[in-house]
Here is the input.
Amino acid sequence: MNQRAYGRWTDRQKHGLFFTRGLHMDWPLLGGLLILAALGLAVLYSAGGQNIDMIYRQLVRLGIAFGVMMVIAQIAPHHMERWAPWLFGAGLLMLLGVLIFGHVGKGAQRWLDLGLFRFQPSELMKLAVPLMIAWYLSENPLPPSRQAIAITAIVITLPVVLIILQPDLGTSLLIAASGVFALLLAGISWRLVGGMALLGGAITPLGWMFGMHDYQRQRVLTFLNPESDPLGAGYHIIQSKIAIGSGGLYGKGWLNGTQSQLEFLPERHTDFIFAVLAEEFGFFGILLLLAVYLLIIGRGLYIALRAQDTFARLLAGSLTLTFFVYVIVNIGMVSGMLPVVGVPLPLVSYGGTSIVTLMAGFGILMSIHTHRKLLTG
Amino acid sequence: MARIALKDHFRETRLFTNRTIVAVVFILLVTLAIVTRMAYLQIINHKHYTALSQNNRVSIVPVAPTRGLIFDRNGVILAQNLPTYSLDVVQERVKDMEQTLAELGKIIDISARDIERFNKQLAQKRRFQPVPLRFRLNDEEVARLAVNRHRFPGIEIQARLTRDYPQANLTVHAVGYVGRINEKELATITAADNSANYAATTHIGKRGIEKAYESLLHGTVGHQKVETNVLGRTIRVLERVAPAPGKDLIITLDVELQRVAKEALGDNLGVVVAIDPNNGDVLALASKGDYDPNLFVNGIDHKTYQALQTSLEKPFINRALQGQYPPGSTVKPFIGLAGLEHNDIRHNQKIFCRGWYSLGEDSHRYRDWKKQGHGLTDLKKAVAESCDVYFYKLAQKMGIDRIHDFLSPFGFGQRTGIDIAGEATGILPSTQWKRTTRGEPWYLGETLISGIGQGYTLATPLQLAVATATLANRGRTLQPHLLKTVLHPGEQNEPFTPDRPSITIEKHEPRNWKRTIDAMLNVVYGTHGTARGINHQQSYKIAGKTGTAQVFGIAQDAEYIKEDVAKHLRDHALFIAFAPADDPQIAISVVVENGGSGGSVAAPIAGTVIDYYLTGKRP
Here is the structure.
């Protein structure tokens, strides 16, 4: 098998039209995502105070996101591989644009006004960074050389710094994670990982002093001791822990969570929706949710393992692990294990562009799994 | 493409597989950590967080009890709770507050003061809480608001119970009034560990019965357990424990008798106190000037309050308890009785009155009110005609301390123990009293004028009525009281129990009491009796005594001519009486401030009141 075979399509892929030859679609992954979305809608209905309009809007958003996923699933991975550097370059330029012309909202500059709609370049980067790194690392033999690691580190750092400057700690964290996961999966030596961790530990105090906004520092301080400011910054975490803890084993029942229905729980339909689920469905509800997430993540890793080339493997692995980071960062912050960084619970939280990006990522996974080269063809 | 040729696909795949296994282990460990954390919160600390969430959502709202009613002895209502309507505004439902207020102002009267108070409260309350804009809407205003209501989202007509005194000025000095709880009262409530019971109460008894029996009238607070949301808005009521309303009270006052008494006083300032000598029931407690207690219930405005406060009529003073007057000649029957009991005089012993009395040849002349003198005078005549010289002599013979000791059990110089606050003690002088209060020795001349109820002697109208009742009772003392019965629905009603036992003054010779009362009958029925003007051949007999108390000392040789003296310096007219003399049902004291002569001004008032009480005949 030579490099030319790389670009050759199978007969099925070359001549088949997807309405005759079938959709490129991974049914187990789609099933898991649909179960998750349904569970999310049920919790959202309760968290939003039985606001049916909110459900409609979320349904439209989910529809668009699933649509995007399906479209992307039809694009063969080698096209993505070709676009990767261009997407990354464009994303980087747009992040600079946001810093210069961006719209300010909630003390953060994240949006680019494109006339008709506002676009969040950091969302694009969630896909562009793993694509770029997977492409770059797969161009060289693995494990990556020191030079390759250094270049990868620059590729990760540039967008992450630009996004921290916006400032959007949550997104920059997720993007950094996606890059680091790609590196780890590529086989970077553990010794280097250990060294980086030590370096990170040394840099953290500097970052605390010079790199963080007041509100971010406050979040960390509040995380460390929420009771210190029960009516201010600590209120979110205290109320959220009350909601989770009072849920008990079986929960208070759907629509019966007092913390959420009586509005003690802030941001209950967005970032803190997990607490609503925990309050109304209890410990068993959480186990169910975690099971669905693990199902999706397991399928993602299976796809990565079964992928036929390094690019696909690294991309699938990185996207899957980043999805897991989404889940643990959100649950961790809502349950008081991690600071509040403003990461939604994927597919459950009510909200905007992140859901589309997320589903686009699953589109890539499906594409990887369904555009298989017939090695024996 | 040489680089690519170096790729070892097998090695890369194995490396990736190894790393994926590490990732799976990582995922499982982190998931386990999350599950452990959830178990910690939801299972181990479940109770703790459940309690916190209960505290979040459930709050206890106290519900004020309904205040007990006050009735007179015949069941006439004296204090009640009337529903009154107020206009409340809910901020969050009003789009443009200024415009709404302006438009409302076109429909009903809204004063600048209303708006000022409204804005002040608006800033303190939550957006969904109603804030009162106008109190005491009349029926027409309620109707007008109801018709226009659709134009004003966010306005509510709220019914609340307001304390109301239908008899207004007539009963104010006995019943008193309630007003908003002030800081001092709040501190008292807190100190008495009563805060919980007053949690929802806005008003408290300030004076009179309302104050004295606050604990009975108030009742016991109830509460509602309500579910509230994060803003404190009530979502639903979970549980309700009804408040126990305050006790209804029947008081001893006869409001019609009170009305007769007050009308009899006419335009004069003064007091009528009537007591049932059999049990101490205060039948009438009419004090003028007076004021409308309803003004105080929802806060009196400054201007009206100032006007009342500075009024020469001194309406806030309850003259029956707080007015201390020289009793004048009304003490004479008591001193006469003292003389008889002490054997200082005999009832038929006569002295000669030449119009004045002096202690030595060139010393001060103590005048009799009758310039030409009464001539030969015994006790009966001395009381009936109010001969001063007789009592100068008797007082001199007895000495001030024996007079003091005899009069003291009648209640002079001490509080009667009536069950409303503010009572003055009066003064019953003695040598010791003068030494301790003034640090001076007693002079004989002071004894003489004490014999006719002048000088240091001061008594409240209530004391006079109580002393008269004691005389009527032939020495049995009593504690006057306004509370008659506490009503306990469905149970035995609870009558007033005096906290001071009734005693009977020890008698040396019972006939002396009869002789004194006979002398008092002569005041009304004798041909020269000073109160003969009220002898209307009644079917019952009135025993009485007139009195005239000097407000203004006149020079030794000058003559008191009523028309020459400014009204507020004129003598006070007094009269004490009881009737029927042989079976006393009512004992009365009347003081008419600056009224002039007791016989012509005070006695007719007493006569009218007694007649109404005993025969039901209105003047």
Summary: Chain B has three domains: 58-76+167-251, 84-147+155-160, 255-306+314-615.
